[in-house]
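User:
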Amino acid sequence: RLARRPGSSPSVAGGSALPYLPTMKVTMVKKRLLSGAECPKCVDATEFLKQKGVFDRLDAIVWYDESDPESPGHALAQRFGVERAPFFVVERPGRDPEAIDSVMRAYKLL
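Assistant: Predicted structure:
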């Protein structure tokens, strides 16, 4: 992403600060199984994003907890009609939020 986060102040040649540009926000929704373990696909997705060097670009991680129907991940899954994890919620300025259930597509966005 080319935009910078609020509070940071990179500068260009000559020392002037770059203006803040709105950027997309990406939230990863991971599933916690009834056993308390993270779902295997979520583990694989996390490892893939870390290996590619983009995991730290995620803005948030939210849990879909199988034992808690009130968990934030449940609400997001219901809102976007997603039935599998992991998935990603992408929020961009001027656009409606969207859910992406492809780790590869999320990687390309990050």
